[in-house]
């Protein structure tokens, strides 16, 4: 895939690769354009969290102009994260998994942060997928908020026995290719669904019948919503699925401790507790941590 793409530009230092690529996207930069920084001084993660970006890590942003319907766009962050995770697995890290909603962990430790942001230009909607990968295991500073981050790991420590850590340029190319390839496959499925819609393609909120199907089979349970085409692969890639987790608000309040069943077609986490009661949770409001 990479032979027809512009070279990934590399800069020594920048505030945020995502912010710069959004600026370039508004000026017409093409699908697949990418920027890597050796150091970021204002890297960001989910919910405006600061992402530590010292020299030696991989800090990459990829511009995307997917040919999908507006109703499918909420699934784009998951498609990007799936592509990045696949690239890391192919690079020698088979233990890479997704922490709901879309960061990448190995053995419960955070390896990479993924942030996909939508924006508008004269050419229409576009997105920038930013990813920061720890190459060495970092000691995280003490949290200044109520919710402590997951402990970190580095790619060098997470590689399979006998695998060697790839060069940053090689890894950046592989991750960009992985993201673009997965997004293109997802886009093609959306185009097919638009051309040959199912008899009832209207989006509905998660029903109790759907939750019941998830309880019986959380990976392959039926679902509607923008994530439906990705759902089986997404759930199969999630960390902590089938284990007890704590559901914690952004302010740090623990709401419940229960069994993480998976994610529905709208991206909501499904957690069973108190004798089988299943509640749904939005990633805007809560996160999960292993119990």
Word description of this protein:
The chain is of the alpha+beta class and 291 residues long. The protein has 2 domains: 2-192, 2-Layer Sandwich (BirA Bifunctional Protein, domain 2); 208-290, SH3 type barrels, CATH 2.30.30.100. The chain contains 6 helices and 12 strands. It has helices spanning 17-26, 76-90, 155-158, 168-195, 208-216, 231-237, and strands spanning 9-14, 34-40, 58-64, 97-99, 103-106, 109-121, 124-133, 244-249, 254-263, 269-273, 277-281, 286-290. A 7-stranded mixed β-sheet has the order 1-2-3-7-6-5-4, sandwiched between helices. A 5-stranded antiparallel β-sheet has the order 11-10-9-8-12. α2 crosses α4.
Write the layout of secondary structure elements.
Blueprint lengths: L8 E6 L2 H10 L7 E7 L17 E7 L11 H15 L6 E3 L3 E4 L2 E13 L2 E10 L21 H4 L9 H28 L12 H9 L14 H7 L6 E6 L4 E10 L5 E5 L3 E5 L4 E5 L1
Parallel strand pairs: 1-2
Antiparallel strand pairs: 2-3, 3-7, 4-5, 5-6, 6-7, 8-9, 8-12, 9-10, 10-11
Any idea of the CATH topology of the largest domain?
A: BirA Bifunctional Protein, domain 2
Arithmetic mean pLDDT = 86
CATH superfamily (homologous) name of the largest domain:
Bira Bifunctional Protein, Domain 2
The strand order across the widest sheet is 1-2-3-7-6-5-4
User: Main sheet?
Assistant: 7 strands, mixed
Total strands: the figure is 12
Shape: globular
Oligomer: single chain
SSE sequence, one letter per element = EHEEHEEEEHHHHEEEEE
Query: Which architecture name of the largest domain does CATH use?
Result: 2-Layer Sandwich
Structural category is: alpha+beta
Number of helices: 6
Radius of gyration: 19 Å
- β-strand amount: 25-35%
């Amino acid at each position: 895939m990479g032979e027809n793409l512009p070279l990934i530009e590399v800069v020594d230092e920048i505030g945020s690769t995502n912010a710069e690529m959004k600026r370039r996207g508004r000026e017409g930069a093409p699908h697949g354009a990418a920027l890597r920084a050796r150091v970021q001084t204002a890297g960001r993660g989910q919910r405006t969290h600061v992402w530590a970006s010292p020299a030696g890590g991989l800090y990459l942003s990829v511009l995307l102009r997917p040919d999908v319907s507006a109703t499918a766009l909420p699934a784009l962050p998951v498609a990007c994260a799936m592509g990045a995770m696949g690239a890391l697995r192919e690079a020698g890290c088979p233990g890479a998994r997704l922490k709901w909603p879309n960061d990448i962990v190995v053995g419960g430790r955070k390896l990479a942060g993924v942030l996909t942001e939508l924006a508008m230009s004269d050419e229409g909607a576009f997105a920038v997928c930013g990813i920061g990968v720890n190459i060495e295991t970092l000691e995280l500073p003490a949290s200044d908020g109520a919710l402590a981050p997951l402990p970190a790991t580095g790619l060098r420590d997470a590689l399979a026995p006998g695998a060697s850590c790839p060069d940053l340029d090689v890894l950046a190319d592989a991750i960009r290719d992985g993201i673009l390839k997965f997004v293109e496959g997802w886009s093609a499925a959306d185009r097919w669904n638009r051309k040959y819609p199912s008899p009832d393609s209207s989006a509905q909120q998660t029903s109790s019948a759907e939750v019941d199907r998830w309880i019986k089979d959380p990976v392959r349970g039926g679902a509607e919503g923008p994530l439906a085409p990705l759902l089986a692969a997404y759930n199969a890639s999630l960390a902590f699925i089938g284990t007890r987790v704590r559901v914690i608000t952004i302010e740090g309040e623990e709401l419940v401790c229960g069994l993480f069943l998976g994610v529905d077609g709208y991206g909501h986490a499904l957690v069973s507790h108190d004798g089988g009661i299943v509640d749904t949770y939005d990633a805007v409001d809560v996160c999960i941590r292993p119990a």
